[in-house]
Design brief:
alpha/beta, 8-stranded mixed β-sheet, 4-stranded parallel β-sheet, elongated, binds nicotinamide-adenine-dinucleotide
Length: about 400
């Protein structure tokens, strides 16, 4: 592979599928990762992440010579930054990976290159990287195209959504936006919406914050209903009969690496102004704590009335139904919290979407259903809805499995 069109910094859940797609469309891609295992697996035409269709597309791209991975970037025309942006300390965004990836490509940049950040980033990150780039390479001032374009794919449907989803593209100036649009046009069929970098950065954060706030409203209702003696599921279903009301479902909190994380990127930088977004985060976190407390209370009540310790089934560990992803999962937090205070009770942990777990011993659903005295539904997996518990069981349904 001689001429490289695109360098992809970060070959994870987003970087690898994007790189494979670009290669399939005819451009040559050089993927860069700090993880040697990731590099070896890609160069062997394999994938280290589970995603439908991905394996075939990566194998073809590597076979064709248009996709290759290594630990160091090379000269290209377009550089994409798709590295992690976790949070650190008191829920503050950590853009050190974006900065490290940008520094790595700094010596390679030349006039006319396009630099795009796709990593979910705090507002102003693209401007910060612009300052970094031009302070280190002043001779390139205003001769590069710099833009931000967030990713909004759904794991499990990534290959389809990468192509078909609308994209929001914001450059540091209009010529950068236009140049980035040209780039995405080659493999995205969804609409490409043009804006500035800050708006594009904030758009991604707002999409996830909006979900978080709406789920927090449902979770808050569930807390009120529990005290008021009202069935929250019936209440929401009736309220949603109003033509302009659409309340989401409550659950045992909010998890995953996006919705439970991204709102903090706003709250951290705008604490005074983001009262509602911050409160939503607190409510959704509190809901998990509340569920754990409910399970402890049910456990004590059982012991008092039955004169023996209950066997408790905790149903689900993933952060949402029918997936194997446990990142930031409220169900996992609840299981850990409940079992921390264990007093020799017997627990059955059920997660039908994974085979084993390094901390929890997993029990098949049917077995837990049969042997437990208390059944706490933490995730509304489809399997759980197919066979419901016997009438003599104590059921804590935090996510509407019985509805
Ligand atoms: N996964 C999703 O569904 C999703 C959706 C939308 C947005 N995002 C955002 O996209 C970004 C990437 O997410 P992801 O899920 O692909 O993360 P990931 O952890 O799967 O992949 C990131 C990769 O970057 C590598 N890396 C770290 N530092 C590097 C460096 N300096 N140079 C080169 N590689 C480096 C890591 O080893 C890793 O393989 C994040 O900001 C995330 O919030 C992810």
């Amino acid at each position: 592979m001689d001429r490289i069109d695109v360098v992809m910094m970060g070959m994870g859940y987003i970087g690898l599928p994007t790189a494979a797609l670009i290669a399939r469309n005819g451009d040559s891609v050089h993927g860069v990762d700090v993880n040697q295992r990731v590099i070896e697996s890609i160069n062997a035409g394999k994938t280290h992440i589970v995603e439908p269709e991905l394996e075939t597309i990566v194998a073809e791209a590597v076979e064709s010579g248009r996709l290759k991975a290594s630990s160091t970037p090379v000269v290209a025309n377009t550089y994409l930054i798709v590295v992690p942006t976790p949070f650190k300390g008191k829920n503050e965004p950590d853009i050190s990976f974006v900065e490290a990836a940008t520094r790595a490509i700094l010596p390679l940049l030349k006039e006319g290159d396009l630099y795009i950040i796709e990593s979910t980033s705090p507002i102003g990150t693209t401007d910060k990287m612009k300052d970094l780039i031009y302070s280190e390479r002043p001779e390139l001032q205003d001769k590069l195209y710099l833009a931000y374009c967030p990713e909004r794919v759904l794991p499990g449907n990534v290959m389809y959504e990468l192509v078909h989803n609308d994209r929001v593209i914001g450059g540091i100036d209009e010529r950068s936006t236009a140049k980035a649009v040209e780039f995405y046009k080659k493999y995205v069929t969804g609409a490409l919406h043009q804006t500035n970098a800050k708006t594009a950065e904030m758009c991604k954060l707002v999409e996830n914050s909006s979900r978080d706030v709406q789920i927090a409203f449902a979770n808050e209702l569930s807390l009120i209903c529990d005290k008021a003696g009202v069935d929250v599921w019936e209440l929401i279903s009736l309220a949603n009969k109003h033509p302009r009301v659409n309340i989401l479902n409550p659950g045992c909190g909010v998890g995953g690496h996006c919705i439970a994380v991204d709102p903090y990127f706003i709250v951290s930088d705008y604490p005074l102004e983001s009262k509602l977004i911050g409160a939503a985060r607190e409510i959704n976190n509190y809901k998990s704590f509340w569920c754990a407390e409910k399970i402890q209370t049910a456990r004590l009540q059982f012991e008092l009335s039955e004169g023996r310790k209950p066997r408790i089934a905790l149903m689900g560990l993933s952060f949402k139904p029918d997936i194997d992803d446990l990142r930031e999962s409220p169900a996992k937090y609840i299981a850990q919290k409940v079992m921390q205070n264990t007093n020799n009770e017997e627990y059955f942990i059920v997660e039908p979407n994974i085979d084993n777990h390094h901390i929890f011993k997993l029990t098949p659903y049917q077995e837990a259903l049969k042997n437990a005295d208390i059944i706490a539904y933490l995730v509304a997996h489809s399997e759980f809805k197919k066979q419901l518990p016997a009438r003599d069981k104590i059921v804590l349904d935090f996510c509407g499995v019985l509805n």
